[in-house]
Amino acid sequence: MTTEEVKKLIESGNAIVGIEFGSTRIKAVLIDSTNAPAAQGSHTWENSLIDGIWTYSQEEIITGLQSAYADLKRDVKEKYGIALKKIRALGFSAMMHGYLAFDKNGNLLVPFRTWRNTITGAASEKLSALFGYPIPERWSISHLYQAILNNEPHVKDVAFFTTLAGFIHWKLTGQKVLGIGDASGMFPIDTATKNYNKDFIAKFDNLIADKKFSWKLEEILPKVLLAGEDAGTLTAEGAKILDPTGELESGTRLAPPEGDAGTGMIATNAVAKRTGNVSAGTSVFAMVVLEKDLSKAYNGLIDLVTTPDGALVAMAHANNCMGEFDHWVNLFDEVIKATGCQVDKGKLYGTLLKSALTGDKDCGGLLPFNYLSGESITGLTEGRPLFVRTQHANFTMANFIRAQLFTALGALRCGMDILFDKENVKIDSLTGHGGFFKTAETGLTIMSAALHTPVSALETAGEGGPWGMAVLASYLVNANGKPLDVWLNESVFKTSKKTTVEAKKEDVDGFNEFFARYTKGLAIEKAAIENIE
Predict the structure, then answer these.
(1) For 299-316, b where at least 16 C-beta lie within 10 A, e where not — what string?
(2) I need a surface site. Which of 228, 360, 390, 525 has the fewest CB within 10 A?
(3) Burial of 369 (0-12, 13-18, 19+ CB in 10 A)
């Protein structure tokens, strides 16, 4: 669309907006009638470790939301010379899982416990055994049951618990609902009924019957909705929360709130069976839409979630990906500035990433661990970032950067080996998105080497989750009854350009050598956790 056409679209109140809460940034994207991004806004934030809990405060959540939206408004004003006053459809998404529990008056009972926490091991293990179904430590039900096991006094007062996306949606619409993809990270979904698994709910209620709580599990879970279903409208109070200036009108239709996994599937057009996507940024996860159920549960290794329209998805998830690399980039930037030189941060980032392709295939014997936090998939409850090398390792910049990128995918590879080798899962396409792919050639090559499969990136890969959420909001008002995968192919990705890279055999072999070293080196990481506070 032309600038003038987009301006008229926004003035008429027909623009669509998606907002996603990531680990380090809250991003807002406004799309035009072709579903292309037309304006953007963002807010930088960071979680805090308070009393051993990774959290964000309620105040940070709301002020961050307002800041990202205000930045979007500024971008609209600068590009089109008009104020953003009315939105046709809106959607919120966020990092999945975690625990936000409220009493009957809507008061938060304990600080938000994010997906990053690895404090629910006992609950995860017991529930996985009870259901015969993998219940990861990150899941909301693990947090609730762990609080019960810990005899936390707040549990008796829980009237509602939800995810971050569900919380924001509730505050702005009054609706206690959740998209099925995000809901599948709270409690197991029955893909036949497209709702929570009734048998598992009954087992859980029976498990805690002796506690004599006043609530039953189904009563305190958000209602499950599918992509395209109505999830309420923006209330006058909600509009004022989102835009304290009072310019934004109420009445906007809202899509079901989703998790970042679901919006990643949308952004990569990976909702049909035998498609998959890999999202790599602060954390990393790969998802494959399954043709059939897995043969067994792989507790702590493979999660089972759903697409936004309810198809079963296998997910290998690692808590740590590019966070430690970002710390190294900041250090290099500091060193450069200390010499009196100035280098654009984006150029520095890109230069370092490109150098990885010139390094030794196995990283020259270098071995870093990027564990800023614990990693369930490798059985570690805490993290200690490490860098190890022998005296004779080939210690070059290219090898150092390549090793940082390889280790960012080490835990992910542990999970994907299960799908490929033990379950013989077939993938027709695997599409990447997120910061790992900002320098596409490097990101795609390294990821392809790690997963020994071709990996693609769409031209929209850099837009990521917030754009995916905006597309889901567009689906709400524009689908005309079409299935999600059909609508995406016809209305969003029909003319999209795709870049596909298949790593050379020597790159695959190099990663395999590194991975063998990484697996043995986990004993070093474990020792560091045990001995370094």
Answers:
(1) bbbbbbbbbbbbbbbbbb
(2) 390
(3) buried
Tens-level pLDDT at each residue, the chain (533 residues):
899 999 999 999 999 999 999 999 999 999 999 999 999 999 999 999 999 999 999 999 999 999 999 999 999 999 999 999 999 999 999 999 999 999 999 999 999 999 989 899 999 999 999 999 999 899 999 999 999 999 999 999 999 999 999 999 999 999 999 999 999 999 999 999 999 999 999 999 999 999 999 999 999 999 999 999 999 999 999 999 999 999 999 999 999 999 998 998 999 899 999 999 998 888 898 999 999 999 998 887 898 999 999 999 999 989 999 999 999 999 999 999 999 999 999 999 999 999 999 999 999 999 999 999 999 889 898 999 999 999 999 999 999 999 999 999 999 999 999 999 999 998 888 998 878 888 889 999 999 999 999 999 887 655 678 999 999 999 999 999 999 999 999 999 988 888 999 999 999 999 999 999 999 999 999 999 999 98
> How many angstroms separate the CA atoms of 515 and 407, rounded?
8
pTM to 2 decimal places: 0.83
Q: CA angle 145-181-157, nearest 5°?
A: 30
Residue 261: HSE in the Cβ half-sphere, 13 Å Cα cutoff: 33
Q: How far apart are the first and last CA of the chain?
A: 56
DSSP letter for each residue of 339-378: TT----HHHHHHHHHHHGGGS-TTGGG-EEE--SS-BGGG
Enter the tokens of residue 295.
Answer: 């043969």
Within a 13 Å sphere around the CA of 188, how many CA atoms are in the beta-carbon half? Answer: 24
Partners of residue 455 on adjacent β-strands: 501
Q: How far apart are CA 95 and CA 115, in angstroms?
A: 8
Which residue in this structure is represented by tokens 């909600």?
238
According to DSSP, residue 151 is labeled T
322, 282 Cβ separation under 8 angstroms: yes
Picking from 201, 253, 258, the residue whose alpha carbon sits closest to that of residue 224 is 258
Is there a contact between 364 and 404 (Cβ–Cβ < 8 Å)?
A: no
Nearest to 408 by CA among 371, 433, 379, 364: 371
CB atoms within 10 A of CB 527: 12
Name the nearest CA neighbour of 160 among 215, 224, 93, 98.
Answer: 215
DSSP class of residue 222? P
* Residues belonging to the chain: 533
Going by C-alpha positions, the residue among 299, 26, 24, 285 that lies closest to residue 137 is: 299
**Three-state DSSP class for 411?**
helix
Nearest to 300 by CA among 125, 424, 129, 419: 125
Q: Is 65 left (phi over 0), alpha (psi -120 to 50) or beta?
A: alpha
